[in-house]
Each structure stands twice: as structure tokens, then as C-alpha cells.
Amino acid sequence: MSYYVTTPIYYVNAEPHLGHAYSTLAADVLARHMRQRGEEVFFLTGTDEHGEPIELAAEREGVTPQELADRNAARFEALMPIIDATNDFFIRTSDPRHAEKVAEIMQRVYDNGWVSKGTYEGWYCPRCADFKTERELGPGQTCPIHEIPLEKVKEENWFFRLSAFQGQLEGLYEERPDFVVPEFRRNEAVSFIRGGLEDVSLSRPKLKWGMRLPWDPGQRMYVWFDALLNYVTALTFARDGEDLTERFWPASLHVMAKDILKFHAVIWPALLWAADLEPPRRMAIHGYLLMGEKKMSKSLGNVLDPFEAIERFGADALRFYCFREVSFGQDGSISTAGFEARYETELANDFGNLASRVLAMVERYRDGVVPEARVDAVLAEDFEGAVARFSELLDRAELTQALEEAWKLVRRLNRYVEETRPWELAKEEADPERLDEVLYNLTEGLRVTTLLLVPYLPRTSERLLTALAEDSRRLTELGARPGGQRVERVPPLFPKIEAPA
Q1: 262 catalytic residue (yes or no)
Q2: Active-site residue 146, yes or no?
């Protein structure tokens, strides 16, 4: 089986912040999990480098759009290994190979009769690079996302005949109730479609920084059409001399924030049909990470720097916090204090201490060799079906709920330590078989739980699985591995963090 997951491509008008890392981390969790299940995975991310927002930002800085794109694309690309993203390719839309493929696909859309010329008059947000319909306006003709006054624009453009796909889009949502998750985001898309679709502007005559239309070089392509097509074009050149389209298209899952729902959930499937291509299988829409009740945004100046957070807490702590603190799909507030609390109570105490205690006890009481024993029926009850539940939740892109499923096992193992009190069993030496059973179940439970946590805590899991002498990264049930392995103690997985000076 093949699994193709994408992030949105990120605008290069500013440097990356945690909001960008969030989408990428979500896609990475899913990619890592699917690899554990033996799927052939392709994970794509990259940068969106055309359009008016980049043109305006470059002008403000006194550089060319390409210089700005080169500088900030490098920063986005540098973020990937820092957050431990395992993307297979990083696409840049200023890549000539992308431009060539976009021209070919858009020419097909034109040849198929889905494009017409006309005059557009309406409200435009230069930061969204989006024309707003009357029902999308904020108070006083403002952008509801950026809270800036919109510009009244009148220009002669080429239009994509989106209205012609009204019935087909309604049918798609009818046939595939999980096409967009979570459900309330699906309902937003359906409501937008049922409200009546209008044709959308495909080109901008005044735009200087954008791809020229193949059939009318006097006009440049509206950035969204160029950007959306990255999901298809990347497959044609991501691997030298190989076209991966047949193997991976349609995409299994597009991951994105809610502000670009309309483009992906409404315009994108219609554009694909117009180009004789299949729409993606599913889309997962997440909310905003909020700082002080506002979406993190460079223009609002309220961003949490992922580089700083990682330097202080480590990448795994950031990955864990993002999906533990905010339910994936919803908006949610984050803070440095929240980081510290989760790090201390859950990562250091719940998980880190559990791992240290279990491995220390195996070393102290059994010379570092896991005893061979049977699964304790009491513990087995809590572990039964956990792997399947975890996988089903990630199949539905419910990342927070899946993490909670794994954390239930962490908490259960901590309770099991207190219930069985291995140190007392060791002191009495009256029932060595029971001590063997307890140590085996703790080690085995820790192994199964750590395998589940690989997508969320990749570095920590790797260290711990190595200490547990576990060679495979495939998910297994409690009791799948007999004892007899020699395990090693590990230094604290989440050491105490000193407050910054």
C-alpha cells in the first residue's frame, strides 16, 4: 500500500514560526506511523514563492522577490531537520520544473473549456492573496483573518469556471462523508458549496511576480492555482528520472490550517476534475495555535519561535506539547508556562521516570536480563486492543486522541508499579516467580507503549527502544516478545530544565 501525505506549502514573505511547524509535525506523525505499519510513504512539504504577498514583502525590504524567496525558503527547509520532520521532498514553486508542469496542466484546463475571460470587481486581501465574497467580509469590509481593510479591485481577468462543478462537488461530499475531517470543517465546506459557487479569478494582469498563463502571457497566474498544483507536480520530479504520480496520486491526506479550507476543499477538487485528475482521498483541517487569544502571525507579532523552544526543551518536547495541549482540529491556546508544565509532569515524571525505574529494577534484581514470564491478566486487560484503537484514531487524523490512547498506557504502567511494588517482592525473596512476572510485564508494557510513541517522540523512543534491545519499529501487542533480552539503563530521558537567566 502507498500513503501520500502533504503539508500546505508555506508563504516565504516571512520566516517560519510554530504555526508552520504545527502542520508539518502533524503530517510527520502520520508519515512515521504509516511507515511503522509497513506502508510505502511519500511525505511532501515546501514553500509557496509567488504572488502579491511576496512581491510586497520584497519591496518593503528592498530586495527582489526571488532573493526574498531564496532566503526564507532556506529557513523553512532548515526547520525540517530541527523538528525531526521526515519529509521525502521539499518543493519550491519557483523551481522551473514545477513551472513547466503547472503550464502543462493549466493548458489542459484551458483546452478542456473550463476557462473564460471577464471583468472582476470585488474585495481583495493582499495578505491572503484572496478575493473575498460578500459572505466572507469582516466588519467594515475588512479581512476576518488579518483584520486589515480590503482593497476594492476591478480588473480584466481569466476565470476558472468553478460554478460548473457545483453538482459534482455536492456529490463528492455526499459520497465521501470523511472527505474533510473533522466533521465541523466538512460542514463549513458543504455550506460554502450550497451557498452557490461563483467563477473564480485565475489570473491577475497587474501582478509582476507570478507565472505567466501559457495561453495568454500578458497575464500572470493567480498564486493559488500555481500553489495547489504543487501536490501533483512534485511527484513528477521529486526523484531523479522517476515519475511517482501513478504510485502515489491521488494523495492520501492533505494536512492544513483552517484559513485555506475554501481553496483546498472547494476549488482544488474542481481544478483537478477540470485537468482530468482525481481529487485527493481526504483532508485534515486543524485550527490555530493561539497566543493571547490571537492566531500566531508574524504581522501581529505574537509568534512562539520553534527554534528557541527546541533549543530549550528539545524537539520531542515540542512535538508532544503541540498535540497534547491543543486538540488537533480545534483552536487552542499555548504558552511557555504550558510547555514547562507538560514537560515536568508528563514527559519527565510520567514517562521519563517510568522508563528509568523499570530499567533500573531489571538491572538491580535480574542483572539487566528481562525475565521470561507470562503476561499478567490484570495488565493485559488494559493493553488489549490499544494498538488497533491507536491506529484507527490516526487513520482519522485524530492526533490528540491517539496520543491520549498511548498516554493511558503510560499512566497504567505507573499504577502497575505502585500496585505490584517490585522492590518489596525483591526484599522478601519469597516469590521470585512473581517478581519475574512483574518485571517482564513492566518491560514489555514499556516496549509496546514506546513503539506507539515513536511518531510523537522519535528521538526519545529511539534511545529507549535501543536500551530495551528492540530491533523492530513495527507495532506489536503486549506479550509478542518473550523475555531473555539484555537491557540497559538510560540517563534521564527528559532532564530537569533550568529557568533561563
Answers
A1: no
A2: yes
